Amino acid sequence: MSEMRLIVAGAGGRMGRALTRVISQTEGAVLAGALEAPGSELLGKDSGVLAGLPANGVELSADLWTMSANADGILDFTVPAATIANVAIAAQRGLVHIIGTTGLSSSDDAVISSVTSRAIVVKSGNMSLGVNLLAALVKRVAQSLDESFDIEILEMHHRSKIDAPSGTALMLGEAAAAGRGIALGDHSARGRDGETGARRTGDIGFASLRGGSVTGDHSVIFAGAMERIELTHRAEDRTMFAQGAVKAALWARDKKPGLYSMADVLGLGNF
């Protein structure tokens, strides 16, 4: 099979640059386009140079329609508005759409789901092997313990992150809720402050910390009356997210239209 031609959305950002580097190192993948927001001062810059590589001749552009004419997939770690704008074009062009964007609303998710009858989408709050294994473990533990164990999710990210809780924290919350057989939206406790009253039995709590250059730390705590179980993952470099995204694109290339997750990519669906 020929090399998979991939577009990097948000190519000028930290994650976009990491994706560009990983594509250059991955057999079977080639960079076909570098997308950046209209008005960005980086438009016209060489994506290879921005990523710390030799010049590759792929310049940053805001014209997804044109660059997607000769592409097979798009790796999208941007912001919700940009991702939703990319969804329609990716579906129309028949691109595999890998979505790692966080902070998506329920209406955004509905837009994404609306194209999956004709498009291949892999969407995950976190593309790393370790985090997806953690989510599978969280689901199993939540399934094994009753409501006498309270579930709390703690996450910390760099000071520039704009959404909270993180997409990964919400993914872990969904895993815990699935294990308990409940809807996360009905049992989510966030931002406790002031006279909150006693903790409500069955809630899944979230706490978000921001500071420094932390790539991403996540802990899921199962707190019982006399014991505590803690499952933790610490990300040390965003390269692992980029590697997971490229792996997902290559995996999805020959799949039927539908909405997939990293659990599908990694074979953890029935874990």
Jot down its keywords.
single chain, 271 residues, alpha/beta, 7-stranded parallel sheet, 9 helices
Overall morphology: elongated
Instruction: Quickly count the helices.
Output: 9
Strand content: 15-25%
Strand order of the largest sheet: 3-2-1-4-5-6-12
Order of helices and strands: EHEHEHEHEHEHEHEEEEHEH
How is this structure best described in words?
With 271 residues, the chain is of the alpha/beta class. It is built from 9 helices and 12 strands. The protein has helices spanning 14-25, 47-50, 64-67, 80-93, 106-114, 129-144, 167-180, 239-252, 262-265; strands spanning 4-9, 29-35, 60-61, 73-76, 96-99, 120-123, 150-157, 188-190, 204-210, 216-223, 228-235, 258-260. Strands 3-2-1-4-5-6-12 form a 7-stranded parallel sheet, with helices on both faces. A 5-stranded mixed sheet has the order 8-9-7-10-11, covered by helices on one side. α6 packs parallel to α7 (167-180). The protein is elongated, with a radius of gyration of 19 Å. It starts with a strand and ends in a 6-residue tail after the last helix.
